[in-house]
Amino acid sequence: FLGGFGVAKNLCSWAVDGKDCTVNEHVRATLQAFHSAKKPIGLCCISPVLAAKVFPGCEVTVGQDKNVDGRFPDAETASAIAELGCKHVCKNVNESHVDKANKIVTTCAFMCKAPLHEIFDGIGAMIEEVLKLA
């Protein structure tokens, strides 16, 4: 499981370079090894962008593609994911998305300005789905 803004600053250069970012080679190799071994990968908050960079054509969510009610101030991330050739699936903060073909489970977490209990529910949904795929 990966998540949080540290991903965009430390595990890749998304915070500075957006969709043109580079992914740390150790992180890339670890994600590719999990994927090759058909192990599930859980990503929340901004970290679904790692999957978008490493696994072209995958499906992920970072919440909504529009700033619905001011709750999704980083909604443009969804279009950047699409520009990378991946499918962004709009989900509410308390939901997760499962890319069954790639065994990648994502949720938006703090990409949505929501009460903590709603973020908690979304992360819980992600964990449940990862465990189902394990």
From TrEMBL:
Record-linked InterPro entries = Class_I_gatase-like
At the top level of its lineage, which domain of life is listed?
Eukaryota
Coiled-coil intervals, chain numbering: none
Its name, as the record gives it, is GAL3A protein
What is the source species?
Nothocercus nigrocapillus
Q: Which gene encodes it?
A: Gatd3a_0
